[in-house]
Amino acid sequence: MKKYLMSGLTVLAMAFVAASCSSDDVYDASRSKVQDQYDAAFIRTFGEPASNQDWGFGTLYTNYTRSTAFTRAIQPTFNFPSDADPSKFLDDVPAGIELLTSGIGRANHYIDETYEGDVNVWGMGTEAGGWQDKSGGILYVKGNCDFSNRSFYFGGNSELYLVKGATLTLGENNGSGNLQSGTMIYIAEGAKLIANGVLHLNNGLHIYNHGTIETPQLSTNNTSVLYNVGTVTVENRISVENTLSVIVNDGTITAADLNTAGSGKFENNNKVTISGTTFVNSNENTWVNNGQYHTGNFIYYAASDEVINNCKLTVDEDFGINLADNDGNGNFKMDAGSSVVTKNFYGGGNWSGTYAGTWCDAQGGPFYIYMGAGSVFKVTGTATMNASKENYGIYGPTDGSSYDGVSFAVFEAKNVVMGKENQGFEVTYGGNLAVVAENHFANGNDGREDHPFIDFKGNARIYAPGFTSGKPAITIQSSECNPGFNGGGNIPVNYDVRIIAEDLSATESSDFDFNDVVFDVHFTSNTAAIVTLRAAGGTLPLRFMRNDELEVHKLFGYGDNTSVMINTDATARGYQTDPEADHKEPVEFAIESGLDRDTNKGNDIIIEVKKNGVWYEITAVKGKPAAKLAVAPQFPWVMEKVPMTSVYDRFSGWVQNPDVRWY
Hints:
Elements: E1 2-3, H1 11-15, E2 26-28, H2 33-46, E3 98-99, E4 104-105, E5 108-111, E6 119-121, E7 138-141, E8 144-147, E9 152-154, E10 159-162, E11 167-170, E12 184-187, E13 192-195, E14 199-202, E15 206-209, E16 212-215, E17 218-221, E18 225-228, E19 231-234, E20 237-240, E21 246-249, E22 252-255, E23 257-260, E24 265-268, E25 271-280, E26 286-289, E27 292-300, E28 307-309, E29 312-321, E30 332-334, E31 339-348, E32 351-355, E33 358-362, E34 368-371, E35 376-386, E36 393-395, E37 409-418, E38 427-430, E39 433-440, E40 454-456, E41 461-463, E42 475-476, E43 485-486, E44 497-501, E45 517-523, E46 529-535, E47 542-544, H3 552-555, E48 587-591, H4 597-600, E49 607-611, E50 614-617, E51 628-631, H5 644-647, H6 651-656
Parallel strand pairs: 1-48, 2-50, 3-5, 4-6, 5-7, 6-9, 7-10, 8-11, 10-12, 11-13, 12-15, 13-16, 14-17, 15-18, 16-19, 17-20, 18-21, 19-22, 20-23, 21-24, 22-25, 23-25, 24-26, 25-27, 26-28, 27-29, 28-30, 29-31, 30-34, 31-35, 34-36, 35-37, 36-38, 37-39, 38-40, 39-41
Antiparallel strand pairs: 32-33, 42-43, 44-45, 44-51, 45-46, 46-48, 47-49, 49-50
């Protein structure tokens, strides 16, 4: 940080001495035509200000943490089922139930290790009465019941209870197809179901597990449900297949691979470990993670809108995403405070590989990732971008929400490379998104200026060599859902307020970006402060404390050249050609007296803009249209030519009602 020194003179000595001003400096304190035009444009854009709107100057923001204003965990449209009633999980066989002596027909009995025959319980039917009565059979299992070399046929519309401490072992050939449709299986805590063959849930079969399930392979199909509160261990693949089959995990699941197909639905609320690959490969899939999900690879190869990460997804190797070429159709959603950590990321097409024996060849390009406030997507290796079409890419929040005072999402990678050389729209970065990389491919175009390699939407910004230097001044605390992010940046915790301002030139909504000057204030006493200048997005002369030596472009080292826009990504966005202007170091100077912190909270730090040879003060009058705002020191200012409301869509609501949380 550069500290500004002025030949031993203090700012105060210059601030109120008229002789220090040049001859054309005429201070006009009236509400001039310039001010009236600005006010009219402000009201057209944001509406009439509330009479009690103090523009943020009613408080100081030291150690500021705003209450979160984000939505609860993102919910899919599919309504996942609940666990079975607790009364279904038994400590013992109910009183009065007798030991099964013949395993043929219906049963309302129990078996234990003394039972030596086969089991053939049936209950299928569609009409009441006779052999077609659909009431089904009921069988209780206690002790150690091993059917590895015996037949176990359990018919539809029946109920099977494994009481506490029971073990039911099914053979390689009789465990999968012989659990029939409509059956309800309840496994109590401390009980175990071992299937030596494929455990196949089909045609409405439901298993509610509070104990342990062990099997080499597990599949659900055709409206079947596995609801796990205990432990499920699968040696090979879990398949969640067609016709609204469902797996809900409230316990622990371990498997080699997990595949969702057709309209299969999967929800994790606790812990899942997949050593191989997780596939999401149908437009009708629902995959939701509300807990800890760890997988070797994550391949999202469809156009489902129901792929949602609300907590932590860890991928050891490859995260690949390639969706349908329909704008807005298919996306990966991340809720506020959530995270993805992966070694490699493939965004869009032109990637291929064999995952769990399945060959994936992604030749298309589209992909969307929507990230909530305070979320982190971290690529420890290489991120390859190949969206290939306009708008596709990665977006931070656009609704003005915040998470622990952070309104940005962070996409962090070691290296970000092109997936296909010389192609427009490799990626779009949008919303409140900070992209942080050790290396990032340069922007440019494929020969058409309207086909940029990197398309910026909203307030997105890249922190990498050749873009903005350093890291964003964002700190995201680590949690069970997030590894955290420590940008550090240039914002010490002892700043009291950040002030952002317009230079009275805005005439329509697209002009209001409030970055013509951005500075932080640290009060050293009630009457003195240190000012740290962060950005100057305006192209008119703009000065502090009526002092020409404190003109913002001059402070940044540009002398009398006021045409340069500083630290607002103007070069990266194509509005100027000075790349150094996008990453200037902050400048610090002192105001040694004359302020009233307790009363004005920084509103008396005078800022003026020079228009047509006249200096006009930039004001924030209670209940009137404002050209400057007080915000928290962590507030990410809006980038060049980005409308305030496209980044903070609650801003207009806040103008009209100061109780609205807008960031």
